[in-house]
Write a structure and sequence with these properties.
Rossmann fold, 7 strands, globular
């Protein structure tokens, strides 16, 4: 069992970081033999998408050393995704959407032939069979029944792009109202409770898939 933790806030004291850390703690308690891989996007050099990105559409065996070097970060990030059973993403909301660090990561991992492909019926994601938990921190409330819902371009985008890569088992945990002192703590407490529930469910489901796979081999 392997858990990939991705943090996308550059703030050391961010709420999203605190909550992903709690997720890892809970996951380790439920799965002490499991492996945790941590990816901090604020300290990862994420290349721009330049003309060199066209190399991703060519024959991998014909890449030049320069092209291989350019794609090395993308290769490493995709390898982490492929090797994970569970993925937890810490995602603060900035200006109604995701941080630039998280967007830059997405641009590196959405890649033809690696995480998605095109066929006769259109695009197809290649990363099925994984559990994704996205933990957000938001200054206000953007729940479906709130006036702020119309400004939530964070969850809808992440759901769509994750599905594009085949990641369809996605759960969101929102720590809302973090800019409102009287409401921030109750929201964080609710998020922590939800983390405990999701971790327990996720580990049980992963163990079931593992046993099913072993029985079929």
């Amino acid at each position: 069992m392997r858990l990939l933790k991705i943090d996308s806030s550059a703030r050391r004291s961010s709420v999203s970081r605190q909550l992903t850390a709690k997720f890892v703690e809970a996951w380790k308690e439920e799965n002490p033999a499991g492996e945790v891989l941590e990816r901090d996007l604020s300290t990862t050099l994420l290349p721009h998408i330049t003309d060199d990105w066209s190399a991703t559409y060519g024959d991998p065996s014909k890449l030049t050393p320069a092209q291989q070097q350019y794609l090395s970060t993308s290769d490493a990030l995709i390898e982490e995704l492929v090797g994970a059973d569970t993925i937890v993403v810490g995602a603060p909301m900035y200006n109604f959407t995701i941080s630039w660090e998280l967007k830059a990561w997405i641009d590196q991992v959405v890649r033809v032939g690696k995480t998605m492909t095109y066929g006769a019926t259109g695009p197809k994601g290649l990363l099925g069979g994984k559990k994704v938990v996205v933990i957000t921190s938001r200054g206000g409330s953007y729940s479906a029944d709130s006036p702020g819902a119309q400004f939530d371009f964070q969850e809808s985008y992440l759901r769509r792009i994750l599905r594009f890569m085949g990641l369809t088992d996605v759960t969101f945990i929102h720590a809302q109202n973090q800019a409102r002192r009287e409401q921030s703590e109750p929201s964080r407490a609710a998020a922590l409770e939800r983390i405990g529930q999701i971790v327990s469910q996720t580990v049980s489901a992963a163990e079931h898939r593992s046993k099913l796979s072993e029985s079929q081999n």
